[in-house]
Design goal:
- With about 210 residues, the protein is α/β, with parallel strands linked by helices.
- The chain has one domain (about 30-195): P-loop containing nucleotide triphosphate hydrolases (Rossmann fold, 3-Layer(aba) Sandwich), CATH 3.40.50.300.
- Helices cover about 40% and strands about 15% of the residues.
- The chain is built from 8 helices and 5 strands.
- The protein has a 5-stranded parallel sheet with strand order 2-3-1-4-5, sandwiched between helices.
- Helix 2 packs across helix 8 (about 180-195) and helix 4 (about 80-95) packs parallel to helix 5 (about 110-120).
- The protein is globular and about 55 Å long.
- The model has no long low-confidence stretch (mean pLDDT about 90).
């Protein structure tokens, strides 16, 4: 491995303003956090589709998908979870630097790791979204059968069963998927992006 003293950061000749003009948006990261089965991935995919349909460059970074590639060799210990999120944050930062709307869908149970992600991305363009649903609802949904396996002792360190989840203290938005419809959830996040100046307001059925 090379000496860190011989590695230098190279700035681009393309400015954020250049990308904003081209894309009609400002790069940012929407970080969706919540228990397994809370609805993070469903909301992320629906939001991504609505943004693209509205003429915006958006991409979803899903926790399971990244564990098939860049994070394939990481486990679920607190240390591996922290590294999992650090890598995800670095990738999301690159997307935001490119002017894209990065939608990150990770359980990300620990506040310290989410704070580190915010630091990596930059607080001014990091939107922490708490996808909230009671454990009993998440467990009833159990789309991957993971809660059942955790209850049976087949999965260790499973968030909500035998590992903790630390609720965000001051998220940019809380989506209660026990009460809100998918359409309501997407609408709330589109409004948030517009209110923070990352995109123009995307109205129903009208490309921006």
């Amino acid at each position: 491995m090379g000496d860190d003293k011989n590695i230098f950061w190279h700035s681009s000749g393309v400015t954020p303003a250049d990308r904003e003009k081209l894309l009609g948006q400002k790069g940012c990261v929407l970080w969706l956090t919540g228990l397994s089965g809370s609805g993070k991935s469903t909301i992320a995919r629906a939001l991504e589709a609505r943004l693209v349909a509205g003429g915006h460059a958006a991409f979803t970074l899903d926790g399971d998908n990244l564990r098939h590639g860049i994070n394939a060799k990481l486990g679920f210990s607190p240390e591996d979870r922290a590294e999992n999120l650090r890598r995800a944050a670095e990738v999301a930062k690159l997307f935001a630097d490119a002017g894209m709307l990065a939608i990150v869908s990770f359980i990300s149970p620990y506040a310290a790791a989410r704070d580190k992600a915010r630091e990596i991305v930059g607080a001014e363009r990091f939107l922490e979204i708490f996808v909230d649903a009671p454990l009993e609802i998440c467990e009833r949904r159990d789309p991957k059968g993971l809660y059942a396996k955790a209850r049976a002792g087949q999965i260790a360190d499973f968030t909500g069963v035998n590992a903790p989840y630390e609720r965000p203290e001051s998220p940019a938005a809380i989506i209660d998927t026990g009460a809100a419809s998918l359409e309501d959830a997407v609408r709330a996040l589109l409004d948030l992006l517009a209110a923070r100046g990352f995109t123009p307001l995307i109205t129903e059925g009208t490309p921006s």
